[in-house]
């Protein structure tokens, strides 16, 4: 069986009892970063062999994992933090297992984008997760243009090295919409900044960026919305 196991995005106490049970019972753990996963395993006194499974070896490691599964072994896939397959390795392995007729399941748990959307104060019933945008300005702006007229709340991930460039491009492409930036979620210095894109850009220009950021931006014309307004109230 192939298990995709969600792990804490910060606070280790957020791991589920079922996740711990599976990590203790599988034959091998495929980790995005074996060192980071090693810290998690040590914290919960789990001793299991690990293998690297990340964006740079997905094909080769995927071959090995498929062979292990065909031999009847159980494999747990974990990323550095959060849910495998969401802006992290996992999708190709799931597709491979399905195509090969192998059993695959998932243990749900922390996902940074969901937490950020809820804490943003923006409409949550309809949103578009866009993940990491291109690194260069031209590509990033084209990436944003796709959703310029979308009414759905938009969710992006960005690194500390490009957060101000991202906000500047978002302001230029989308206009000065309501937005929120989440950082260090579930950790000691958890922070959610809310405001307009222009005010958040000013804030980030004055702060030292660190850690991964989740940016939540209001959809076009949908900055404040009651979900009940969308329901069909006809007789």
Automatic annotation (TrEMBL):
EC number: 2.1.1.198
Residue ranges of every copy of the Tetrapyrrole methylase domain listed in the record: 1-200
Pfam families registered for this protein in UniProt: TP_methylase
Molecular function via GO: rRNA (cytosine-2'-O-)-methyltransferase activity
Reaction(s) catalysed by this chain's protein: cytidine(1402) in 16S rRNA + S-adenosyl-L-methionine = 2'-O-methylcytidine(1402) in 16S rRNA + S-adenosyl-L-homocysteine + H(+)
Subcellular location, record wording: Cytoplasm
Keywords assigned: Cytoplasm, Methyltransferase, rRNA processing, S-adenosyl-L-methionine, Transferase
Chief subcellular location: cytoplasm
A cellular component annotation (GO) from this entry: cytoplasm
Cited CDD domains: RsmI
Protein family per UniProt: Belongs to the methyltransferase superfamily. RsmI family.
Role: Catalyzes the 2'-O-methylation of the ribose of cytidine 1402 (C1402) in 16S rRNA.
UniProt cross-references to PANTHER family, sorted A to Z: RIBOSOMAL RNA SMALL SUBUNIT METHYLTRANSFERASE I
Record-given protein name: Ribosomal RNA small subunit methyltransferase I
């Amino acid at each position: 069986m192939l298990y995709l196991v969600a792990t804490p995005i910060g606070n280790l106490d957020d791991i589920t009892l079922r996740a711990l049970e599976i990590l203790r019972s599988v034959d091998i753990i495929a980790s995005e970063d074996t060192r980071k996963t090693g810290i998690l395993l040590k914290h919960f006194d789990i001793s299991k062999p690990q293998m690297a499974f990340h964006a740079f070896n997905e094909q080769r490691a995927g071959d090995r994992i498929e062979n292990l599964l065909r031999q009847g072994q159980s494999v747990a896939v974990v990323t550095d933090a959060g849910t495998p397959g969401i802006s992290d390795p996992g999708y190709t392995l799931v597709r491979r297992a399905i195509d090969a007729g192998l059993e695959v399941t998932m243990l749900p748990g922390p996902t940074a984008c969901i937490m950020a959307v809820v804490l943003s104060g923006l409409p949550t019933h309809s949103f578009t997760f866009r993940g990491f945008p291109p690194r260069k300005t031209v590509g990033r702006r084209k990436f944003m243009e796709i959703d310029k007229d979308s009414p759905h709340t938009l969710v992006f991930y960005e690194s500390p090295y490009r957060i101000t460039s991202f906000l500047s491009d978002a302001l230029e492409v989308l206009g000065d919409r309501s937005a929120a930036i989440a950082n260090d979620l579930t950790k000691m210095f958890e922070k959610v900044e809310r405001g307009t894109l222009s005010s958040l850009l000013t804030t980030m220009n004055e702060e030292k960026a660190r850690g991964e950021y989740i940016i939540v931006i209001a959809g076009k014309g949908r900055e404040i919305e009651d979900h009940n307004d969308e329901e069909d109230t006809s007789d």
